[in-house]
Amino acid sequence: MGRTKPPRLDGESEDDYYMRLIQKLANEKLALFARYQMEQQQEEEERKEVATNLLSLKKSKKSSLKRKQRDFDEDDVIDIKIKNKKKKKVGVTTTNKAEQRPVVVNKVTEGVKEFIKNKMKGSDLKLLIQKTLYASDLNPGQNRLNMPANQLETNANDFLTADEMRKLTDKDKKSGLEVDKDKKSGVEVGILGPNLRMYDRMLELKIWDMPCTKNYVLISNWYNFVKEHYNFLKKGTLIQVWAFRLNEQLCLALVCPDHEDDNVAFEENLHDGENDDVAVAASASEV
Q: What pLDDT digit, counting tens, does each position of 5-15 carry?
């Protein structure tokens, strides 16, 4: 059955009407292509991560240790990982949390928490994820920060309201089936940068359902945010994303815990009692 054409807008000419339909179709195809690229890059990044972790494990073991069976190399483990990935149900990923770096707690992370609670008067502060930035997270063509659901430190129900969760998991009213990921609505969020300055544009949080997992993604102005914080956000950088509330508005804070000794702007804003960006944050929460 063919797709029903949307109605023509009031005063819209026939040429404009068909041009709008063509543009909409083109945008949908581009979005699908971008999702496919992300899936391919994510799988490749997982392969590299497993290989790196296995090499580190091998080096840490004593050379005198005899293996009961033949030695496993990186491709053995990666192939097993990929085969298992195909067997697992949707919503479950193969990334092992034990392989990830423990959550960092230092003066940067504690300073951000203090700043949000005491100076911004934020509430409901929760750590969402700690992850390494990949090239795909910084790609202007993809314009998104990927946060796999299985790597979240906080359950979605603990940082999202019921209304926000409904927006992120829209279902077709007639069929009750999941809406295509490119047509799902998102939740607007304000974001605090790693220099403790509130970004002056809103971002959008969405859920993308992938074949083997579910990802939370930050889109809409993400790459503009990256460009304004290029000295922090580079490939391989460890980041933490925290969720909090300002006047009931969902906001996020992006923290770079490894920038402990070279973040002058962070130190200045942390100890600035009259930080003007708090007002910016408050106004953003009223959007």
A: 778 788 888 88
Domain map (residue ranges) of the chain: 14-61+69-90, 99-284
For 124-170, what is each residue's pLDDT tens digit?
Answer: 999 999 999 999 999 999 999 999 999 999 999 999 999 999 998 87
Backbone angles phi, psi at 254, to 5 degrees: -105, 120
Q: Which fold has domain 99-284?
A: At1g16640 B3 domain (2.40.330)
